[in-house]
Write a structure and sequence with these properties.
single chain; alpha+beta; 15-stranded antiparallel sheet; 4 helices; 15 strands; about 15% helix
Length: about 280
Amino acid sequence: MVDTDRSGRVRRRAAWLLAGALAVSAVAGMPADGRPPATATAPFPLDEFLSYNVSYLGIHCGAMTLSSYTENQDGTPVYRIDLAARTSKFFDGVYRVRVRIESTYSAERASSLSYHHHGEEKGEHKEELWQVDFAASEVHRTRDGKLTTFPLSTDGVVDPLSFVYRMRVLLSKAGERATLAMMTSGGAVETVAEVVEKRTVKTPFGAREVLVIVPRPQQDELFSKKGRMEIWVGADERRLPYRVVFDLPFGKLVARLEAVDDRANVRNLLADGGG
């Protein structure tokens, strides 16, 4: 006899984990010897369109895309990262997710400017916007229409998406560590990330050497449950994020890079009605 209550709990837990993974709950780092000087140089790779397959316990359960680009705001370059994620048709029946996240970053201030998470989760609309107010030394979070303010105790903070991209240029060899002030509901939290090993792995593009980066946040800011997260970044100049792994007590959830394209090519294809 199948324990239907337990089976339902497992499916709901898997769906909850998927929602968390699709939101790319990562942490970020900066060199431990200090914050780099302000610069207008691009802070991370741009003009990419990365497509991921998401699986839970080896079963396909969703898809995710990441893209990066720059735009001009009042004569100043602002760097953007966009994420879009969705559950598969099968998981739609358990916990439907349609998520979009937009992050904006200033290389001049070495800080995030905003972080907008919105979409649908299990039939409910979710809306959360973080904005950094440098003049007032505050971070404003608007969640479902309610405004909360947190002190900005450092020169800058980094949101999860910005870190995933910043680490690609900040960490380059095994044993290297990095720290950064992470934007959280408790204020800026100093967070450490470390390259724990360099290994060769199979990818859709052939065998690749990757740096296995493990975030080590204070006060378990990354997880609401105990676990470990790994981000596998290519060891070559492109530093592609090949894999994000959530290794938790009750299962492993993995986002694997499946395709790499130029963002302009994808936009042109969509404009021409190709997808």
